[in-house]
Amino acid sequence: MTATVTVSHVEKRYRAVRALRDVSFELLPGRLSALVGHNGAGKTTLIKLMLGLIRAEHGDIRVLGEDPAAGEFSARRLLGYLPENVAFNAALTGRETLAFYARLKQIAPATAWPLLERVGLAPAADRKVGTYSKGMRQRLGLAQALLGRPRVLLLDEPTTGLDPALRQTFYEILDELRDDGATVLISSHALNELEDRAEHVLIMNRGVLAAQGTMSELRKISQLPIRVAIELADSGPVPDWMNGPHDPAAPGHVLLVADDAQKMMLLRTAADDPRVRNIEIAAPTLDELYAHFLNLQEPAA
Ligand SMILES: Nc1ncnc2c1ncn2[C@@H]1O[C@H](COP(=O)(O)OP(=O)(O)OP(=O)(O)O)[C@@H](O)[C@H]1O
């Protein structure tokens, strides 16, 4: 599959601050990538580079085959962006705001009205943005980012401050876009939200791409154990097959296995033992993987 965004060996400095150090990755169509990292890790800088708002000192960036910082970046119209802090003119209505951005993208404003409906803003479309709640401004921001059916969508901390219902709608919209073949990149601190949604995760740490891959690739590289909690029907002696590494901090019997093959072996044995009442499996979470890769990098940083 051809990458829609390619970042190769990118370096970016702000005077003494090395905001990005030799960062390389690809974003693919029809895939949701999560960009995660502490404050100051370089996430917004990466997004600004992909938008062509700033230039890298070294390395190369291609968005839909073009250099986004070039004067004639014709793919700009196919790029959607939701900034971290959406700021709109308070005196314009939601509809007027969207019409303004539609014109900038050279799109007929009327084609934008269904977007107001889609983000649930239709009833408030003709109210001034100054009267909108934070969630409503965020929805307007999303509608703006979706103008012109973008092929690449860059979202900087999009769900901060959204209530759970709105988050749900938000991710439903992203699923539709992704199914339609769009490339979606979300920068976020909400790791638990992204865990089941992102097919690809980029972990940034102080300007360095500490790790990247699918959740299962990251689990494999990390070699963090899978937890298998086994509940026995009685408090008799623990069967021999349950010997092996345990999680000492967890109550009950939580066995630690290295990989899926070991997990399956354990499950087969457990399923054959009539004393086993329940089994719960927990693979390393994105939170745990994130902490792991950051810790790994600390000595080198
Ligand atoms: N315009 C600027 N001038 C000077 N330093 C900057 C500028 N923009 C960013 N930086 C620095 O570059 C580094 C990366 O910042 P960036 O905003 O990309 O991080 P981030 O991962 O988006 O952080 P956050 O999660 O807080 O939004 C930080 O050390 C930041 O202080």
UniProtKB/TrEMBL annotation:
Tell me the SMART domains matching this sequence: AAA (SM00382)
Which stretches are annotated as coiled coil?
Answer: none
Q: Which InterPro entries match?
A: AAA+_ATPase (IPR003593), ABC_transporter-like_ATP-bd (IPR003439), ABC_transporter-like_CS (IPR017871), ABC_Transporter_VariousFunc (IPR051782), P-loop_NTPase (IPR027417)
Name any one GO molecular function.
ATP hydrolysis activity
Transport: present as a keyword of the record? yes
Keywords attached to this Swiss-Prot or TrEMBL record, sorted alphabetically, are: ATP-binding, Nucleotide-binding, Transport
Where in the numbering of this chain does the ABC transporter domain appear?
5-231
Decide whether keyword Zinc-finger is in the record.
Answer: no
User: Which family is this protein grouped under?
Assistant: Belongs to the ABC transporter superfamily.
Question: What is the documented function of this protein?
Answer: Involved in beta-(1-->2)glucan export. Transmembrane domains (TMD) form a pore in the inner membrane and the ATP-binding domain (NBD) is responsible for energy generation.
This protein is called Cu-processing system ATP-binding protein
Organism of origin: Rhodopseudomonas rhenobacensis
